[in-house]
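User: Predict the complex.
Assistant: Input components as received:
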Amino acid sequence: MSVATIGLSGGRDAELCARAQAVIPGGMWGHQRAAAVPEGYPQFFAGGAGACVRDVDGREYIDFMCSWGPMILGHAHPEVEAAVRTQLDAGDCLDGPTEHVVTLAERLVQTIPHADWALFQKNGSDAMTSCVTIARAGTGRRKVLVARNAYHGAVPWCSPSVVGVTAEDRAHILHFEYNDIESLDAAVAVAGDDLAAIVVSAFRHDLGVTQELPDAGFAAAARAHCDRSGAALVVDDVRAGFRLNLGGSWEDVGVRPDLAGYSKAIANGHPLAAVTGNARFREAAEAVFVTGSFWYAGAPMAAAVVVNDILHRLDGPARLRAAGTRFADGLIESAMRRGFDVSLSGPPALPLMQFADDPDASLGEAFCREALTRGVYLHHKHNMFLSLAHTDAVIDAAVEAVDDAFAALARKRSASA
Amino acid sequence: MSVATIGLSGGRDAELCARAQAVIPGGMWGHQRAAAVPEGYPQFFAGGAGACVRDVDGREYIDFMCSWGPMILGHAHPEVEAAVRTQLDAGDCLDGPTEHVVTLAERLVQTIPHADWALFQKNGSDAMTSCVTIARAGTGRRKVLVARNAYHGAVPWCSPSVVGVTAEDRAHILHFEYNDIESLDAAVAVAGDDLAAIVVSAFRHDLGVTQELPDAGFAAAARAHCDRSGAALVVDDVRAGFRLNLGGSWEDVGVRPDLAGYSKAIANGHPLAAVTGNARFREAAEAVFVTGSFWYAGAPMAAAVVVNDILHRLDGPARLRAAGTRFADGLIESAMRRGFDVSLSGPPALPLMQFADDPDASLGEAFCREALTRGVYLHHKHNMFLSLAHTDAVIDAAVEAVDDAFAALARKRSASA
């Protein structure tokens, strides 16, 4: 461990990391490995409340990852947790679903203009795999177009890693470039009369790459291809869903999908995913067999109903946009004052901050470490997330700490110059 | 609805079913569709406590499905729920895992002789897909052998339905017959030097078919094939895990797998799955990328630690075997007294009851409906599940009600003869 990281991850964290090394491959796996965040970030957390998260060494951070998306109202939200407790007290995972599955499906159908029906799962990967299966069942075709490098889950057909994956797992996957109509046209031509679905992320949020909102013309072209061919237009709203538009993220570009996948923020951290679909794909959704042992449990669905109520009541997307804009303005102003050139990309509610001339994000990483020691948890390569717990006061406190982090980074730059 | 089912599913259930028809394809999906249980069974449940489950019309049943497996200690178990509440109160789904992931991995490694490490997921399908991905990563090979008609999940490579599935999803899946060494030898020969894994259920529990325990010779043959070829022997302990042997179900036949998948009972209804593996596959487990938004949440892992403690403290498998045996004895004795020929198959803790000369299970279905009206929730085609809440008194009460159901069935048979 380099000198710079001493004082970051603490004693309890180090102890747990050592124990984890013995019994968990690589000490941790998947997207929450500390190896994937800046050096010195804690691996283990103890809890969270509102906009703050607390590590196992008792240090609190203003949390701009929101559990990598799920916390849209803030950690341990009292109203959500009360609904969860009520169902847990009654008994939760039962021989069949609770009434919450109906209420929640009705709520999504009322909220999301394209949605005629809904099904529920546990993982974003479940939702996206179900979308593909339903699209294939409904069209009797096989080819699925996805944007190159887009993240749609961590299962063989779409995982960002091909380790342990066979070529056949992706035999019918074709690629286009996000927002590039020509490349989409070309992929559609290759698929020919075997086109089952065009799968598109709500916006371009590939790891470590400047984010892009969907171009309205591109979205319309994708819709037109599906209208022409009968293929399913599938929006992957797993990451962005409910933060940008309660009717589905592509309402902002005036395009409605046939199928959409949701997860992350749907139940404020309780495990749930959803597929919504239009009438055209209802019969296909009836025909496929998708299920899981815990998919019918009531508590996460009860949570999701409360989350949906609150987001409507408070106009969640507008507040998140305002909070994200305040945060972005503060970051940019502070960076300029301290002599750094940073830019933010993507929607304000899910921003990515990048330094100019920092292709490997090493400056971004150093900055995030400075911010962490000042009580702000950021990410240098993955988009961050705002929540409704990120009030003006919270954001101003974070920006103040971040300003100090920029200043420290500037001092280090001078010292090494 | 036929006359016989009037008085079964009630007013609130019917109302919810009608609403569900509008917003959920087919009114419900997957294994908890009421269409898959005897006619008149309720679709919607309100809660459960101990060995009892309660539908939305307030009717209580002694529950022999245990939520289709998860409830191994009984519904709403106080000690488990207390651990869950503690983590939920602190904040649960965070920017990284809690310490429970380490404690739980340590506990599984201590408990399960083959296990050198553990990883956690949400669905049984996640665990089994991870096993296959790790086996392929570790061997650099592709072929995966599974028993014909075995259930390993509801994702394209293994779903019992091929609707929406492509041939390529199963391009490298080969079949053998459970407990049939010759068919296993033949499949191994077909796989040749491309054999990545042999995947075997803890016991044969195919839907609607007489259950079979694994033959020790067959298990040894599977182990020998893997030893010879370097392929991974994978035991699917998703359904049976923790009910038969806390060291893994194949401890009973003296064979240790390289990888095993667990889910269902691991956390007494809280959503969790696990893969355990030996040292040989640790590097492969490090190399693959498998993850999910909610996989690191602490509460289900805290629950699993408590479940593991309790199962050890009370010798869960021995108690479940005793409870299942008492139930089976009662069923058979009652059936004989009422003039029916029934047999039970599989381990007593996960029994399947079948009537003689009832190939379509219609007699079984009629019996289950009689039992339901008498407050006992059974299944006619899928194995049932015992829990530690199924005390002698509970089982005796169930057997008494079931005896009345057999008597009613006998009267109907006489009336129609």
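Chain A has two domains: 7-75+316-416, 78-313.
Let me know if you want any component modeled separately.
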